[in-house]
Structure formats: C-alpha cells, structure tokens
Specification:
This protein is mainly alpha-helical. It has four helices and two strands, in the order αααββα.
Length: 103
C-alpha cells in the first residue's frame, strides 16, 4: 500500500472499494444474441425485439430515479453478471422449447 503515499494530491482523488461483480463473458453475450436472433426469426420478429421483450419479462431489473420519479427498468444486458447471463440463456432455451422452436 506504499504506492498510495506516492499518489499526487492535486487534483484530489477519490477511492472506492466495492464488492467484485463477475461480468458476463463475451461467449455468453454472443450466445444470447444468437439465440435471440434465432428465436426471433422463427417467430417472425427481429432479434432485438425478442431481446427487449425477454429482458423486460425475465431479466434482472434496476430501480432508477429521474426527476423525482422512480421506475423499475430492465438491466442492460451489457451489465449482466455471469449468473444473470446464464439465467437468461436458460430462459431463452426454455421459452424456445415451450413455443416449439428448436434452438
């Protein structure tokens, strides 16, 4: 921790310590997009349309406040953790099976 003493004092610095969040992998991201595209194609929708509907219905949510109005919104998939991505991938396969779509 000696390096902290060597840090410049101008401009003032802020240090944060937060729990580590394991971000989704690029492979997970690629697979989600392939599956959303395939499901959309089979159902007559675009992959982005399927993605947004699935994020809204099955994905993790964030609570945001803008201009004193609080809303619960879907978490952007680029911010998913590995666990959240795995859950979404499982849900895509489950929904495809329920709709008779071979993914």
């Amino acid at each position: 921790m000696d390096f902290i003493a060597d840090l410049p004092l101008d401009p003032p610095l802020q240090v944060s310590i937060e729990p580590y969040v394991d971000p989704r992998s690029l492979d997970q991201n690629s697979l989600m997009h392939v599956l959303w595209d395939r499901l959309g194609k089979e159902l007559g929708y675009g992959g982005d349309e399927v993605k947004e509907v699935m994020k809204d219905k099955y994905g993790p949510k964030l609570t945001v406040t803008l201009r004193n109005e609080t809303k619960v919104v879907p978490k952007p998939s680029r911010k998913y953790t590995k666990a959240e991505s795995s859950a979404m991938i499982d849900q895509i396969y489950r929904l495809g099976a329920q709709m008779g779509v071979q993914l």
